[in-house]
């Protein structure tokens, strides 16, 4: 299971999912760039892998191809502790993570609804993905009529709002949509209403510029 985006927004239970493998990266939840792979031990022990001869034959070390990035591993652990710390003290780390994720989810739902509603009210803005109230993460993709995605991102940056643009490794989807790319904005643990409103106002400003020059 590819959980690179989900891991930042939902507390994952691999047993409940019944998955064989799950991969993610701490950079999505405020940690360093690092690959994380969880797998069923019997599968990790049995699948053929290319490894250095001195490497152990037992999981999980048999999947490593050399010296570990110890500083990144320490950073990943710190990122998990940071998330758990958002719930304060009391209970195990898992308990604190459960509380933190629940609170962040509730907060993010309100923020993404505000973002979606604000963008949807702007003539010429098209939103992609399920609307608020449906299962989703607090990340919104959109296009602005008359501007390509890179122009929108550049225009917002000039207004102090920073977003991503491109195909986000979904090149086939973007191609079938007939687009050159999408603009993507997400709500993190530090996002507030004022930042959402500034983004919406920035997009509205860009759209007014397009209309004025038409």
Quick gist of this model?
Helix content is 43%, strand content 12%.
Description:
- The longest helix has 28 residues, at 93-120.
- The chain has helices spanning 14-17, 41-46, 70-85, 93-120, 149-158, 171-177, 193-213, and strands spanning 21-24, 36-39, 125-128, 139-144, 164-166, 182-186.
- 18% of the residues are buried.
- Helix 4 (93-120) packs parallel to helix 7 (193-213).
- The protein has 2 domains: 6-85, no CATH class; 104-213, Aspartate Aminotransferase, domain 1 (Alpha-Beta Complex), CATH 3.90.1150.
- The protein is built from 7 helices and 6 strands, in the order αββαααββαβαβα.
- The strands form 2 sheets. A 4-stranded antiparallel sheet has the order 3-4-6-5, with helices on one face.
Largest sheet: 4 strands, antiparallel
Helical residue percent?
A: 40-55%
Question: Largest sheet, order of strands side by side?
Answer: 3-4-6-5
CATH architectural arrangement of the largest domain = Alpha-Beta Complex
Overall pLDDT confidence = 94
- Total domain modules: 2
**What is the structural class?**
alpha+beta
Total helices: the number is 7
Low-confidence stretches: none
Shape: globular
Q: Which superfamily, in CATH terms, is the homologous superfamily of the largest domain?
A: Aspartate Aminotransferase, domain 1
| CATH top-level class of the largest domain | Alpha Beta
């Amino acid at each position: 299971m590819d959980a690179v985006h989900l891991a930042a927004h939902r507390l994952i239970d691999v047993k409940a999912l019944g998955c064989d493998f799950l991969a993610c990266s701490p950079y999505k939840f405020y940690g360093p760039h690092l690959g994380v792979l969880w797998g069923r031990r019997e599968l990790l022990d049995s699948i053929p892998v290319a490894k250095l001869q001195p490497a152990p034959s037992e999981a999980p070390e048999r999947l490593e191809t050399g010296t570990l990035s110890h500083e990144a591993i320490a950073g990943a652990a710190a990122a998990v502790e940071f998330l758990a710390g958002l719930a304060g003290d009391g209970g195990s780390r898992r308990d604190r993570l459960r509380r933190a994720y629940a609170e962040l989810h509730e907060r993010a739902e309100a923020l993404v609804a505000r973002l979606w509603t604000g963008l949807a009210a702007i003539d010429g803005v098209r939103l992609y993905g399920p609307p608020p109230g449906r299962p989703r993460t607090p990340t919104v993709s959109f296009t602005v009529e008359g501007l390509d995605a890179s122009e929108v991102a550049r225009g917002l940056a000039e207004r102090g709002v920073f977003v991503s643009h491109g195909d986000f490794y979904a090149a086939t989807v973007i191609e079938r949509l007939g687009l050159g790319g999408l603009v993507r904005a997400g709500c993190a643990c530090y996002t507030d209403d004022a930042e959402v409103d500034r983004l919406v106002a920035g997009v509205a400003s860009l759209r007014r510029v397009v209309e004025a020059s038409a």
